[in-house]
Structures are given as C-alpha cells and as structure tokens.
Amino acid sequence: MSISSRFAVGIHILTLIEFNKEGVTSSEFLASSVNTNPVVIRKLMGMLKKSGLIEVHPGIAGAKLAKELSDITLFDVYKAVNVVQENELFSIHESPHPDCPVGRNIHNTIEPLFTAAQLAMEKVLRSVTLEDVVKDVATKENIS
Amino acid sequence: MSISSRFAVGIHILTLIEFNKEGVTSSEFLASSVNTNPVVIRKLMGMLKKSGLIEVHPGIAGAKLAKELSDITLFDVYKAVNVVQENELFSIHESPHPDCPVGRNIHNTIEPLFTAAQLAMEKVLRSVTLEDVVKDVATKENIS
DNA sequence: TTTACCTGTAACAATAACTATTACATGTAA
DNA sequence: TTACATGTAATAGTTATTGTTACAGGTAAA
Fold first, then answer.
1. Chain B nearest-CA residue for A118
2. How far apart (Å, rounded) are the C-alpha atoms in residues B27 and B16?
3. Which of A115, A29, A21 has its CA nearest to residue A69?
4. Which of A19, A83, A103 sits opposite B102 (nearest CB)?
5. Of B1, B120, B136, the CB nearest to A1
6. CA atom of B37 to C1′ atom of D12, Å
7. Is B82 near chain A, with CB under 8 Å?
8. Using CA atoms, how far apart are residues A88 and A64, in angstroms rounded to an integer?
9. Is residue B54 within 8 Å of residue B47, measured between CB atoms?
10. Domain spanning B6-143, CATH class
11. Where are the domains of chain B?
C-alpha cells in the first residue's frame, strides 16, 4: 500500500508554477515535466483550485499560485488532492464479534492509537512549506 | 487509500491469544472473533510466526505468543504483516522530465520529506506495546 | 465570426492490492 | 484409521489508481 502519487504530483505542479511564474504554465507544459497525461494534470489542477491553492480559468492558458509560497504547506496539498481521509490512514476490520471481549472493544482501543500515528505524520507535513520545497529544488539545481 | 486492515487484524489476533491464553486459540476461533475467514487468519498467523511474534505448529491447534506482551510493539506487528514498505508510505511519480529544473530535482527534494513524515508515524507505533492494548481492552471491558 | 487553443469533465480500460473463498496437501494425536 | 488442525495455491469480486480518448465549453486573435 502506498499513498497516491497525486500528492507528489501536486507538489510538483505547484513548484513548477512558481519556477515558471514569468511564463504560461499550461496543463500540457506541466504534463511534460511530470511525465504524464495532461488530463491527469487538469484533474489535479481542479483539486488544487477547489482548495484555493491555484488560480486557473477555462479557456485561458496557464495556472498561477493563489497564495504566498510560504502560506502553502505540504499538508494543504495533501488535503487538496484527497489522498488520505481524516482518521482513515489505517483501516480497521468491520464488525468484529460482539460476543468476544476482544471483539467488542478492539475498535475503540485501536482507533485513538491509529489516529495519533496519523496525526504525527500529518504534523510533519504541516511543518514544511512550498517555499522550503522551492528553495531546496533551486539549491540542488545550482549545485549540480 | 488506507493501510490494509491486516494491521488491525494482526493486533486483534495477538490480543485475543493473550485473552485466551488458558484455552486453545485456533484459526477458526480467531476468525469468529475477527469476523472473517479462517484462511485469512492463517495467512496472518504465518506472517506473525515468521516475525517471531507467535508460535504455531502444523497439525496442532492453537497459537501462543512467542514474546512478552511488553516486548511486542505495534510497530513489530505493522512490520510483520507487511502493510507498508520502508520508505514507501508515499509514492512518487516515476521519471519526471530531466530537461526541467523541477523535473530533475523534485524527487530528491521530496523524498526526505516523505521519509520524515513516515518515520514520525512509525515512531508512534513503536511507542505502544501490546501490553498497553491488552490493558486498555481489559479496562474497557470492566467499565462496561 | 471563424479559427485555434485552452480548461473541464465524462467514460472507459489496464493494473494492482485487498479480502474472501474453495480446495487440498500435510501434520498430529486419539 | 479417523478427526481435525495448519499451510498454501488458485481464484473471484471489489476498489483505487493511473492513463487515455472524446468532447463540451470558454477565450481571444485573425
């Protein structure tokens, strides 16, 4: 099991919009950099737009960031592209047997533990902004 | 996307083996409490056995814990049932375009961030033992 | 107003993982 | 030998993911 690459692609899209901010960042341009189909990009652009991360308009080529780089965290992207639902990173088996002491309590015991683990992961995502990502890409680019 | 319920079921199995330690915990007995097919349980028992968490023998009914409760963490179970591979909680799109400054660096930029998030989640799993789970189930059982 | 090109989106297919199930080989002990 | 357990291969249904074609609808320049 892995979390959908929509998340990584979403980050890629936003980062490239920033890098190409003087130019026109169309779905085809993005698709070429990501190496996927433009429709995949447009679907993701729709999600990013819906979450207020980018501005994009029918008929007009190019997407722009709708917020400051430092105001967009990886968690914002993660939520926007809908890869993991709240409290559902871990799935729990349905309807264990209520006649068993373990069966009737295990869900309530496990759930807060799973939630805590998920929140710890998400906390890391909240601590990283797109500005961090853009700067790191720029640094790697200049070094090499 | 959700992490397979094998993890939750694995915890259920180990917890029930402990609760039923005076009796015989067969795959059928476990399957009844979990509410699934005994073959599903036997596959999981195979994984838990392979990781040294339980003892179970062909032809002989019943599984036993192979370690102290306090010596088994949720992380041990998580690894045993193989729900998430190392460094693969988040998937990253393959082969972005090398002619693009973002395309050729995004993987190296994102990867350590994803790894850090995954490790934070796993750290929580390492901090909880089966003893904690068993005690919590017992407490809930006594309250109600 | 026609043309060219963009975004938005529905429909569909291939793939992979998950879960449940049947069937049966193999091991153990009464 | 019988009864019953674990171990495991094969298979099916379901769902999510990713990619693709097709086309509706918006915009702007010729």
1. B121
2. 11
3. A21
4. A19
5. B1
6. 15
7. no
8. 31
9. no
10. mainly alpha
11. 6-143
